[in-house]
Amino acid sequence: MSNERKVALVAGANGVIGRNLVEHLVSLGDWDVVGLSRRGAPDRGRVRHIAVDLLDPAGTRDALAGLTDVTHVFYAAYQDKPTWAELVPPNVGMLVNLVDAIEPVARGLRHVSLMQGYKVYGAHLGPFRTPAREDDAGHMPPEFNVDQQNFLEQRQQGKAWTWSALRPSVVCGFALGNPMNLATVIAVYASISKELGVPLRFPGKPGAYTSLLEMTDAGLLAKATVWAATDERCANQAFNINNGDLFRWSELWPKLARWFDLEVAPPLQMSLETVMADKEPLWNAMRDRYGLQPSYDEVSSWRFGDFVFGWDYDVIADGSKARRFGFHEFVDTEGMFLSIFDELRKRKVIP
């Protein structure tokens, strides 16, 4: 397969997952890439971007009509909604519209890769069986990740193409304007704490400070996604993808605070969405003082921060299936966070 032309269609190309996936595909040298997003982006090198609303079936068909040479679809698009039930129609609909549009024109389609997460196991609902495994029993709907996989499984029957599903933990990497960006949440929260002269307090539930967690580096996930899409052993399989180490915030939080030259005080449970609601004027002053680039809206993922910091139970999954199938990459989680902070500072996202 390495000698054959490969053309990737990446849905959600401007997000944390999609952006890192596009960069990885380009680095491999034998891929052409088409990125899909609502906003679009400038074309560069072997990457061209198409602005498309995947919720619009006719518009999606029109936008993708000329993509006859696509061989691999990587689906990482996501639309946020306030409730679990409301997440289902748009997120399933976008995948259906994309497959409906590309399958008839891309005659050489080989694979459709689906990005999922631990919601498949009910991690968002409360304490669940850990470490979660890919063959664990399902749970009461609604859950759009499950519905998306069911759609792909049914659609793939009798077709030449295959599918894979990647299940990362919380994905950390560089991207702005993303509703699920934990590294930016921590970096901006710490930067504002420093500006106000207050210590860095863990804002989540007391039990969350000592629970076992794991993260997934966006670069690691990109490598795993391409591996699963191109290794024949992985056809029609789901894989948990995580960094490979476990941590507790009680151990990691002081180390993250040290990067910002901040003291740590005892945890204090508070809603970031509430306490950070009035911080835009302060952020604007910090932008002027330090020459920062992003607006407050672009770095405000407070609701997602509250969600993750509210896990007062273990959130871990067994990553051994991917290793058994041949993927052996890993990332040190502490180093991942510090590397992302370095990047955020370099790009003038934080002081």
Automatic annotation (TrEMBL):
Q: Which Gene3D superfamilies match?
A: NAD(P)-binding Rossmann-like Domain
Membrane-spanning regions, if any? none
Cross-referenced CDD domains, in alphabetical order? Answer: 5beta-POR_like_SDR_a (cd08948)
Q: Do you know which Pfam families this protein is assigned to?
A: PRISE
**Domain PRISE-like Rossmann-fold: start-end pairs:** 61-351
Quote the InterPro entries the UniProt record gives.
NAD(P)-bd_dom_sf, PRISE-like_Rossmann-fold
Q: In its UniProt entry, what is this protein called? A: Nucleoside-diphosphate-sugar epimerase
Tell me the organism: Amycolatopsis viridis
